[in-house]
Each structure stands twice: as structure tokens, then as C-alpha cells.
Amino acid sequence: MKEKSVIIVFCALFFGMFLFSLFPKEKEFSETENRYLQQKPEFSFEKVLNGSFEADYEAYIKDQFPARDRWVGLKNKFEYSLGKQEMNGVYVGKENYFIENHPAKNYESNLAKENIAALSNTVSRYEKTLGEGHVKVMLVPNAVTILRDKLPGHAMPYDQMKYLEQVKGEIKEEEVWIPLYETLVQHKEEGIYYHTDHHWTTLGAYYGYEQWCKESGITPVALSDMEQTLLTKDFLGTISSKINFTMKTDEMYRFEPKGADYTAAYMNREEENTLYDEEALKIKDKYAYFLKGNNGLVTVTNHNMEEGETLLVVKDSYGNCFLPMIAAHYKTVYVVDLRYYSSLLSESVAEWNIDDLLILYNVNSFATDTYVQRMQY
Hints:
Distance between the termini: 71 Å
Oligomer: single chain
């Protein structure tokens, strides 16, 4: 009876999955993973012969597997109960920190080297056209580098500082570089990275802003003069989606200079009276609240200035919560995300009469982003 029971359960699961594959209730978007899911591929003999149908169908089965999120969470819980401290590229750290491990291959690849060359070319170009001191580069170390004391004992992550030294060495102009490591380490106990997400917190971004001001010869808006708004106590970020079991939620704040008066135009549409998306606080991807997520182009106007200089920020998502602070020092800020911006940057710089340029990425994103090389054109 015991053997028959095992066979019956196995057959029920097998044929249940088979029937599901015939009549699935497909999901288009996974809010947990914050991405679109593979849909059932259209059959054709041409796709079968070139192998694309098989690859797409395999991805479809993985993405549309019944209760996929629960199975992933169950697997990770089981592995954690056995003492495993790294799952799906994430360290289970101390003090409820879940920290992404970025492997050495991310920084030793041809792409990582080509991105350094692209940055160097960009800096040289705009140091000539905008003038010395008008170009700044801010590459933000990730939590795995700054919060090393929060990692499990056996963890041996790649040292991002090796890659940063390569980048700094390639950029010959010393005044361009904004050093962040020492500043962030100094404040590492203050919650400058989320426990469940790969971004720095708004407080972490503030310390980055202070360092930018210092290197740029600008007086920063004091932390006491920032309007600090608690947005949510229930933030679960991208890392929680990778692990998918119960975690302590994060608080998420907005920092904006008191009395700030900004408008923003997203992708050249009409101006809006906000840099934020209140609706994002109702969904899983709450970080999309800042700057309404990742847009190819956002034009921010500071109405507290009748006239002033123009800044271009080329950034990844680390720049989204940073923007309201830096915008206080310019009349106009153009914010470009090269992943979604197809125009030539050189033409845009000329058209917008740019005075200053800031390139802001987190280190891992900079090394692995295939769109970084667009900045040199």
C-alpha cells in the first residue's frame, strides 16, 4: 500500500502538470520578480529547426510553472534550514540583511573592460567641451562591499574596490572622481542600504550627495533642512523576490529640500508637479515611486531659481532617489537612463546647453550594463 501510494501521488502530480501545460492560466507579469514572464511561443517548423521554439518553450514552462513563487520559497527555506547561507546569488547575512553576491566574472568580462573604456572616452570628451571640473563620476559600491561585516562567516565575495581602482586609473583627470567608499563605510551602521533590496536607501543617497557637493565646491543642503517623509514601512525589494520567503520589511523615505518647487517632464511629455509616483506605493515595486521608475529622459525644472545652470545626469536606478537633492542646485536637470534613451548623447548635450555632467551608477550595474557604451557617442 505504501508503494502504491507513492506511485499514485507521483502520477497525479505528473498528469496534473501535463494537463496544466495544455490549459494554463498564463500570467503576463510577475510582481514578485518585477518582470514580464515568457508567454507560450507560437509554433513553426522554422523555429523548431533553429532551436528557438524549444528554448522559448522551456522558458515558458519555467515562468508559468504552477505556484512557482511558492515552490522557489519552499526550496530556499529547506536549504536555509540545512545551514546554507547563500541562495540564488544572495547571502543570508546578519541583522536581517539579504545581500547580493556579485561574482568576479561580472568585473573581469570583456564588457566590464569595454565599459571602463567608454567611460574614459566620455570623460575626456566632455572635459574638453564643458571644461575642467564640469564632469563628475560617481560609482557607488554595493552593499556586499560596504556591509562586509554583515555577511556570513564563510562569504568570500569579489572585492569591488579592485574594479573601482581600474576605473579610476583609466580616468586621468583626478578632479572627475567622487570617492564614496570611505564615506559609506563611515555611515554603514545607519541603514544606508535596504535589507531586502539592491539599492542604497535615501539616507545612503544623501551621504553620496554630500560627497558630490564637497568635490564640486557646493554647499549641501543640511540633513536637518531636508523634508524627510516616511513613505512605507512595508518595502520588500528585488532581493526578497529572489529568495521568496518571509523577511523583515524595510522602511522607505523621501528626502527633499524644504521649500523645493519642482516640475518634471517625462519622456518630453507635458510637465507634472511631482517627481514621484504615489501609485507605486500600492504595488510590489515600491522603489518605482522615485522619479516614476526608470524613464529614458526626465527633465526637472527648479522653480525656486529664475535662472541658473543646467546639469545632465546619466544614471541607473541608484540616481532616482538622489535626484530631488541635487536638483536644488540647478535651474534645469536632464536625467538620462541609457537603457531607454536612444538619441545620441553628444547631440543632446549640445541641444540642451549643458553646463555640468554627472555619471552615476552602482558598481555592479556599471560593469554589467550593455548600454553603458552609448554614453561615448
